Structure formats: C-alpha cells, structure tokens
Amino acid sequence: QPLAASAALEVPRGLLMSSAYIGQMLVLRYLSAWRAPHLHFGVGGVWTTCPGWPLHPAVALPHSREARGDIWWVVQVPVARGSGPVEFVLNDGGNSWDQPPGGGNYKAEHS
User: Fold this and answer.
1) Which of 22, 26, 45, 85 could form a disulfide with 77 if both were Cys (CB 3.0 to 4.6 A apart)?
2) Which residues touch 83 (CB under 8 Å, ≥6 apart)?
3) pTM value?
4) pLDDT one-digit tens code per residue, 32-64
5) Which DSSP string corresponds to 3-43?
6) Which of 27, 37, 15 lies closest to 86 in space, CA to CA?
7) Other C-beta atoms within 10 Å of 35: how many?
C-alpha cells in the first residue's frame, strides 16, 4: 500500500503509523506495545539485514489513540532523490512482523 507524505493508516492489531518526507529523510512514526520495534526496509531493491533499524521512543502525536502500554516510536531513513519508493515492514526485533493486510510490504512514495 503506498503511503503519501504525512499519511496515516490503520495497520494490523489496531496499531497506527504515519510517514512523512522531510527533505531527503523519511520519518516514520509507529504506535506499538512492542518493546524493541525495528524497521526492515529496502530502497531500489537493496534491503537492510533483519531485523532492520531500531526505532526510538518518540513524542506522542496529537489526537492519537494510544492504548494502555502503547508507545510512539520513530525512525528516520535518509533517501536520495530519484531512488524510488521505500518498501518496508516492521517487526518486534524477533519473529513478529507487521505487514499490510494481505501480506507484502508497505511503501512510502516520495512526492
């Protein structure tokens, strides 16, 4: 599923994420009760080694729907112009994965 800049979407288990491009940086925010979420991503067909890059605790987004135990996390990914979309999935640093409904990868397009 493509994500437009500053888009928010529902993901499995009622979690929420948003992404935005700031210059040549993809900023991904993710709401989760996982203790160590990671972003496994690819640009131009080159992917990170699993489990990917760790996310860091972030400030809660306004009007967000945190449930008890959920924390907002953030990660920033540098992306060169013209490199194409960032494809990604999130995981708990272990064996649990968050993918779009129906499987596959999320995609963040640079507009």
Assistant:
1) 26
2) 43, 44
3) 0.78
4) 889 999 999 999 899 999 999 999 998 765 555
5) E-TTEEEEEGGGEEEEEEEETTEEEEEEEE--SS-EEEEEE
6) 27
7) 10
